[in-house]
Design brief:
Number of strands: 8
Number of helices: 13
CATH superfamily of the largest domain: NAD(P)-binding Rossmann-like Domain
Order of helices and strands: EHEHEHEHHEHEEHEHHHHHH
Strand content: 5-15%
Number of domains: 2
Shape: elongated
Strand order of the largest sheet: 3-2-1-4-5-6-7-8
Distance between the termini: 43 Å
Radius of gyration: 21 Å
Helix content: 40-55%
Length: 281
């Protein structure tokens, strides 16, 4: 890649994207990071050789893309002071903050700035991320490709047709790793309760989680078929699946994803206009 990229926020997800870009050939000298925490600035500069600054205006100077990797509640106060500098260069602005809508970000950035939203997930830290991207109507092909190139540096990307879909994505893949970790944790505890040593149970659960993901990723994506292939009629797996069904696991999962989706929409309302400001009428 041959772009100048600016990251506002050098935390876990911003750092993962930076590492992914460098691994794909992006020059560290063309990456600028705006980060308030001095210790993190020093660590990023020492590890990756990128330019770091506490001044976000300095960070975005000359950038082709500005990645907003800050907390949703900090977004408005972070972006508003950048509007003048964004107007001069007109970079693509890419937000990876949950909940905050394109309309709000565009309002803070000022007119004429292309804005894209994305929802990566934590496996991006291991270059195994799943990222959904949304771009409003009129987004240029070059900006679409630029967003894909940056986000694809840490895993798989898919475009979604509506911004509302990103709230569902947040509930599915954004929060999804926690669900799988919880299931593996509960399986470990249950196995220990049935007499297996904790270390053995944990290792088997972790490796099963990893191996199952690999099987799914290397397959044609038919999850129902994959499940059926390991569920022999009258066998142990079928007995466990029937127990899940009797406990309404499907309904529990649906309720969990709805709760996460609803929370994403609540965050948009709470933080989209900045704390203390009036919402849109």
């Amino acid at each position: 890649m041959n772009i100048t990229a600016a990251f506002i926020g050098g935390g876990n997800m911003g750092g993962a994207l930076i590492r992914g870009l460098i691994a794909r050939g992006q020059s560290p000298e063309c990456i600028n990071v705006g980060e308030a925490a001095q210790a993190r600035r020093i660590a990023l500069a020492d590890e990756l050789g990128v330019h770091v600054s506490a001044d976000n205006l300095e960070t975005i100077d000359g950038a082709d893309i500005v990645v907003l990797a800050v907390k949703p509640q900090d977004m408005g106060n972070t972006v508003r002071p950048l509007a003048g500098a964004l107007a001069r260069r007109k970079p693509l602005v890419l937000s990876i903050a949950a909940g905050i809508r394109v309309a709000d970000i565009s309002g803070w950035c000022g007119p004429g700035i292309a804005v894209v939203r994305a929802m990566p997930n934590r496996p991006a830290l291991n270059n195994a991320g799943a990222t959904a991207i949304y771009g409003p109507a009129g987004l240029s092909d070059s900006h679409r490709k630029l967003a894909e190139d940056v986000l694809g540096a840490v895993g798989t990307t898919v475009w979604v047709p509506s911004e509302d879909a990103l709230d569902v994505v947040t509930a599915l893949s954004g929060s999804g790793p926690a669900y799988f970790f919880l299931l593996a944790e509960l399986m470990t505890d249950a196995a220990v309760g049935l007499g297996l040593a904790h270390d053995s149970a944990r290792e088997l659960a972790i490796q099963t989680l990893f191996g199952t993901g690999r099987m799914a990723r290397d397959s044609d994506g038919d999850l129902a078929r994959l499940r059926a292939e390991v569920t022999s009629k009258g066998g142990t797996t079928e007995a466990a699946v029937r127990a899940f069904e009797a406990a309404n696991l499907r309904g529990i999962v649906a309720a969990a994803l709805k709760a996460a989706t609803d929370r994403g929409r609540e965050m948009a309302q709470a933080f989209g206009q900045g704390i203390g400001e009036k919402p849109h009428s």
